[in-house]
Design the sequence.
C-alpha cells in the first residue's frame, strides 16, 4: 500500500505512461496480498503478478506481515484471481538459498515448497537469493534439481550478489538449464535485510554480456539498452 511503501503511491501514474504496444514486453507487479492483487488487476498493461513466498518464517513476517501458512492461503487466492483474469502468477521463493535469522533451512525445504506451490497450478517459480548467501555450486544444484523435478514449471532465478561474484552465479544457473533471469539496470536495488551495501541485484548489462556470449539475446535493441542505462544513471547515480 502507499502508506506502507510511499514509493509505490504513484503506481497508477507510472503504468499509464508506459507504452508497450508493438513489443513483447510484459509488465509484472509484485503484490503481498489479495488487496494488492485486485488493485494490480485493474491495469490491462500488467500481465503478471509476483508474490514473494519465503521459506523463512521470520522473513515472511517481516516482508508481508504474514506467516508462511497464511501466505500459502494468499497464494491460493491470488492464483484463482489470476486464472479468472487471464494473468500469470510468478512465485518468488525468498530466502531460497538460506537465511540469516537461524530459521530452519535445507534444500529439501525449498523442494517441498516448490512442489506445494506447483500443485496450486502455478507455472512459474523463481528462486530468490534474497540476501546474497548462495554459492555458485548451490545455485547450480538447487536450480538443476527443480528444473528436473518439475518439468512443467518454468524455473527462474532472482539472484543478489556482490559485484565480485555475480558472473559465477549467473553461469551456475545458466549451466543448470535456467533461462529466466531477473536483473536491474546498474544493479540498482536489492534487499535491505542483506546487511551488506555491496549486495545488490544482478546488473542487466553484465547479464546481457554473458548471455550474448552464449548465443542468446540476438534480438536485443542495443541502442534502446544504452538509452535506458543513461536514464538510470541520471536518475539514480
Sequence:
Amino acid at each position: 500500500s502507499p502508506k506502507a511503501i510511499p514509493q509505490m503511491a504513484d503506481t497508477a501514474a507510472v503504468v499509464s505512461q508506459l507504452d508497450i504496444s508493438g513489443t513483447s514486453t510484459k509488465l509484472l507487479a509484485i503484490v503481498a496480498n489479495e488487496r494488492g492483487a485486485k488493485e494490480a488487476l485493474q491495469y490491462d498493461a500488467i500481465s503478471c503478478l509476483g508474490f514473494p513466498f519465503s521459506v523463512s518464517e521470520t522473513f515472511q513476517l517481516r516482508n508481508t506481515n504474514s506467516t508462511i501458512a497464511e501466505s500459502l492461503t494468499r497464494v491460493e487466492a491470488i492464483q484463482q484471481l489470476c486464472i479468472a483474469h487471464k494473468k500469470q502468477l510468478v512465485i518468488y521463493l525468498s530466502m531460497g538459498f538460506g537465511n540469516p535469522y537461524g530459521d530452519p533451512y535445507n534444500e529439501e525445504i525449498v523442494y517441498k515448497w516448490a512442489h506445494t506451490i506447483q500443485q496450486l497450478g502455478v507455472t512459474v517459480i523463481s528462486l530468490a537469493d534474497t540476501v546474497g548467501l548462495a554459492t555458485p555450486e548451490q545455485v547450480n544444484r538447487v536450480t538443476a534439481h527443480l528444473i528436473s523435478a518439475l518439468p512443467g514449471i518454468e524455473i527462474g532465478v532472482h539472484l543478489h550478489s556482490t559485484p565480485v561474484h555475480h558472473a559465477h552465479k549467473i553461469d551456475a544457473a545458466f549451466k543448470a538449464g535456467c533461462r529466466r533471469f531477473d536483473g536491474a539496470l546498474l544493479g540498482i536495488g536489492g534487499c535491505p535485510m542483506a546487511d551488506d551495501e555491496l549486495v545488490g541485484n544482478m546488473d542487466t548489462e553484465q547479464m546481457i554480456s554473458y548471455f550474448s556470449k552464449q548465443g542468446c539475446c540476438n534480438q536485443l535493441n542495443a541502442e534502446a539498452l544504452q538509452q535506458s542505462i543513461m536514464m538510470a544513471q541520471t536518475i539514480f547515480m
User: Anything to note?
Assistant: DSSP finds nine helices and seven strands in the chain. The mean pLDDT is 90. The longest strand covers residues 46-54.
